Amino acid sequence: MAVKVIGNTEAIGQTYNLSDPGVTTIKVFMEKVCKELNLQPPAKVMPKVVALNVAAILETIYRLVKAKSAPAITRKKVTFVARSRSINSTKAYALLGDDQFSFEQGMKITLDHLKSLSASEDKVSPLTTSQPGATHG
């Protein structure tokens, strides 16, 4: 599906969520990423207000010391993971057609690709933040 975006003038300047037609929540998405990367999913729950305050403090410290990367916890990341929402691909299917594969197949292809990129020492890993304030994912 993503290949159909290349050269499609209607797709210029647009952002698309690519997922299967089923409902995929952010929680399910994050759990799958953790599983595929052999990471433990978060085991403890912190109130959003506490996490936002911790993130604000870390952002301030990083800014004061002029760190070249963003902290692991930012307010933007906290807000993203704290929302209970699902990934909606309706816009992508409307423009790009309905070449469908399952969530599991798509995650495997994507994560295998990201793992191969992050294994290369001379490339910036797309799994980490490369610029202050920037987020990936």
Write a brief caption for the model.
The chain has helices spanning 26-36, 48-64, 75-82, 90-96, 103-119, and strands at 24-25, 86-87.
Shape descriptor: globular
Domain count, please report it: 2
What percentage of residues falls in helices of 4 or more residues? Answer: 40-55%
Residues in β-strands, percent:
under 5%
Q: Helix and strand string, N-terminal first?
A: EHHHEHH
Distance between the termini: 18 Å
Low-confidence stretches: 121-137
Strand order, largest beta sheet:
1-2
- State mean pLDDT (0 to 100 scale): 75
Number of strands: 2
Helix and strand topology:
Blueprint: E1 24-25, H1 26-36, H2 48-64, H3 75-82, E2 86-87, H4 90-96, H5 103-119
Antiparallel strand pairs: 1-2
Helix pairs in contact: 2-3
Describe the structure.
There is one protein chain. This protein has 137 residues and is mainly alpha-helical. It folds into 2 domains: 1-21 and 89-110, no CATH class; 26-86, no CATH class. Helices cover 44% and strands 3% of the residues. It is built from 5 helices and 2 strands; from the N terminus they run βαααβαα. It has helices spanning 26-36, 48-64, 75-82, 90-96, 103-119; strands at 24-25, 86-87. Strands 1-2 form a two-stranded antiparallel sheet. Helix 2 packs antiparallel against helix 3 (75-82). The longest helix has 17 residues, at 48-64.
